[in-house]
Amino acid sequence: MTPIEYFFNIYLGREVGVCGELIYKGFGSIENNEPVIEKQKEKNLTYLNEAYAFSFLVNNSVAFERLEKIIVLFLLRKTKPREIEKFLISQPIKIESTDDIDDLFSDDDDALYSNTDGSASFNKKEREILTTHSNTAITNFIQKIDSHILDLTKNEKKLLSCFDEFYKSFRYGRFHPKNIDSYNKDSAILNDILVYCLKINTHPTIPIYDRKEHALYNLGICINNLSHKYYTVIAELASEMNIFTYELHDASDAQLVFWNNECSLHDIFFQNRIAREELFYYFSYDEIKKIIKKIFPEWEIPLPLGLILDNVVDFLTYGNNQSFVDSVNESLEDWAEACKDSAASKQKIKKREEEIHALISHFQELRE
After folding, report:
1. 295 Cβ partners below 8 Å, 6+ apart?
2. Greatest Cα-to-Cα distance within the chain, rounded to the nearest angstrom
């Protein structure tokens, strides 16, 4: 493997996985926490703890920026192969073993991008793109090189511009005197994103319990589509080099993000919730049925699923175990197998989860 191949295959391959983890963790920070919804102000759908907004914005803005720069480097390798070689290594070196390769690259990204011999090979605009934090600027540069490689929708461009607004002014905004009166700006940016997402007309196939879920579902569609577009481009460019930059760690959050076949990233977190509620219902069925029937004798109580509990300890310990979540989904599909139509099957599962969610909510209220 040449130094160039090593860089694009191993060095940038690591970055792809990191980006997937950042996207997952960033979305999870607003998915699994409660927002403050002030009914007096219909446009207000924000989070009391501003750390959730910051975590979402910083993780996603960084993740998409790095994915874009991976694409830029691939495109520069195609259009300026000599320059990219000078950019990565100061002089041609034949590598006999991978032990020597580590010495060619710095662990410091800034040091890599500021390499005097290499960066001088690029023009001023190209050097700026490799050091900027603007998602919009990088995507515009990508489209100038290849106008067909990355087709972004209006909603996706809007989201990237929100990331740029945050990153430019408020990544370190709390440490600048001029921003003292705007310390909640990151929450305001997230609020604007969520309110914008509320206006998008969609027809979810999963239960939507409130305005927060509606907003997150639509936001998850946008992030899911962006993630897939970037990952697909990287996979295609890597295939042209006959390398495997797109490979991801097994059972990783990055796999969940980039391989998600559902409509929205929200679906992943909703599936985790289904697993939690079905597990709770499985263990509490007798008590739930006893209490609910006293107050609502006409309520038909669905039977618990026949869950396989092989991975339940890991699920409870770490808050997530994809094998267990998959087993719950399989049990639901088996339960709904009488519906030969997949759409009807999804609606049946949706109705069940709405009923179980309502049962657990009433059960909690009655016990209190």
Report:
1. 362, 366
2. 81
Both tokens assigned to 290 = 């006893």
**How far is residue 118's CA from residue 112's CA, in Å, rounded to a whole number?**
9
Q: Helix 135-145 vs helix 50-79: angle between axes, to the nearest 10 degrees?
A: 20
Could you report the per-residue pLDDT of 89-131, keeping only the tens digit for each?
653 434 344 444 444 444 444 444 444 445 556 778 888 888 8
List Cα–Cα distances, 134 to 127, 162, 201, 252, in angstroms: 13, 10, 29, 27
Q: Tokens 């050097």 map to which residue?
A: 127
CA–CA gap between residue 121 and residue 80 (Å, rounded): 9
CA dist., res. 345 & res. 338, Å (int) = 8
* pTM for this entry: 0.85
* 308-345 pLDDT tens trace: 898 899 999 988 888 999 999 999 989 988 776 777 88
Q: What is the mean pLDDT of residues 35-48?
A: 65
Q: Closest by alpha carbon to 78, among 187, 237, 287, 221?
A: 237
Contact 197, 218 (CB under 8 A): yes
